[in-house]
Fold:
Amino acid sequence: MSFHWRWDFTFEIMPRLLWATLNTLMAAGLGYAIAMVLGLGLALAQRSRFRLLTLAVRELVEFIRSTPLVLQIFFVFYVGPQFGIRLSPWVSGMAAIGLHYSAYLSEVYRGGLASVPRGQWEACIALNMTARQTYLRVILPQALPPALAGMGNYLVGILKDTPMLSVIGVAELMQTANAIGSESYRYLEPYTLVGVIFLAISLPVAGLVRLFEIRVRRKLGMR
Amino acid sequence: MEDMSNYPLELTGPDVPMVRFMNVTKSYGALVVLDKLDLDVAPGEMVTIIGPSGSGKTTVLRMLMTLEPINGGVIYVDGQPLTHMPRGGRLVPADARHLRKVRASIGMCFQQFNLFPHMTALQNCMEGPVQVLGLSRAEARARSEELLELVGMIDKKDQHPSRLSGGQQQRVAIARALAMRPKVMLFDEVTSALDPEVIGEVTAVIRKLVAEHNLTMLMVTHQMGFARDISDRICFFFGGRIEEQGPPDVLFGSPRRDRTRQFLSAVKEAI
Ligand SMILES: Nc1ncnc2c1ncn2[C@@H]1O[C@H](COP(=O)(O)OP(=O)(O)OP(=O)(O)O)[C@@H](O)[C@H]1O
Ligand SMILES: [Mg+2]
Structure:
């Protein structure tokens, strides 16, 4: 048993882990971008006047939210090929994590949309605006600020969930740390470093989100 | 289904009203809010609707603004059907495109102002002209500034609504509606959410509109003195019907119906 920390080993594995950090950041960023766009679609679809669409999307969101992310990742990667959908680990991973978080983000958007008073919609009708103008110019700018806090939480959330992509071999931090461990039989340093790196990313991200939220509110002349 | 063959495809002739409610019915579930309402408003006329709470006053304006669908009858605006459109020689319920076309001649001010909180007073006024009417920003700005001047809000044009008093917000809302150049303006209790000391600044703007502009206006208010001063005609609503209507002096001076008298004396006592 070796409890002692080896600095030389730490510095040796550092470049590999930092390189993997880029992949982790890319996975989180890409996944989040997909989730933001898809989530907005899911939220708007639930307000459509086509009852069947609204209902189907509602069920889909509930389904995604009540099954584990890791299962969804496996599903896309391993079950997909049986239906002729063969995707690389990266693409499968982005699809799964993007879809998963889009369900959560759609709920955040939904809350934001619901917070816009009815009178705002009516003012848009009185000004004869189209549905598109109503959403883009009036409703979304008011729905987003109250949604920013929730959106920020899920940004940190998706970052912390990227290690799950290691199960299908995406070379992000966790997978790299595992690989180092099994090559050198030392796990203390790589896993500790992974923890430190995650902390070093999450904390500033959370802070930046808070700052951004304040700036947006001020820019939109709210409170 | 209602037989639509009794309704003309459009109104023609020398005295086409700016607004016509023809046999209009509105209900929420089993509750009939308006029962076969007939009401004409002539071009340039100022009509004020008064009546007890729940008598359907707001509903009349909301139907005309297409905020509420109707359950029977037809509403015409400037001779054209609003709630319906001609198709194959018959009137069928209007689609979104038809609604947008006819709705362009109607503007509305709300009890709660409903200004866009993320835009300044000027941006609020420019939004419709730029986005909906397709005016250039310069044209829209000129038009909006002129109207903000008219309502006495030009000094505050760069303020967001949260920095304005209720009376100021309502004046901006009036300018915003006018910037769309509507033929018909609807005012639903635009002073009811205001502190007593600022009511005058809003009513003054409406007085000015009546005096200097050839707008058709339909207004709901609880301010009887104001209504009497500026209206061409008063409609007293009771239970979803027009109980009595006439020129202000007649309706306030010598009402014929008991319910009108009771309502007016109740209002007088409240003041
Ligand atoms: N969305 C709705 N759902 C159900 N009932 C409604 C709805 N809107 C209005 N009503 C009912 O319709 C009736 C007429 O309402 P309306 O708002 O037109 O009255 P009003 O004359 O404007 O009253 P007030 O003076 O209080 O503003 C009322 O009985 C009201 O409860
Ligand atoms: Mg009302």
About this structure: The longest strand of chain B covers residues 31-41. DSSP finds nine helices and twelve strands in chain B.
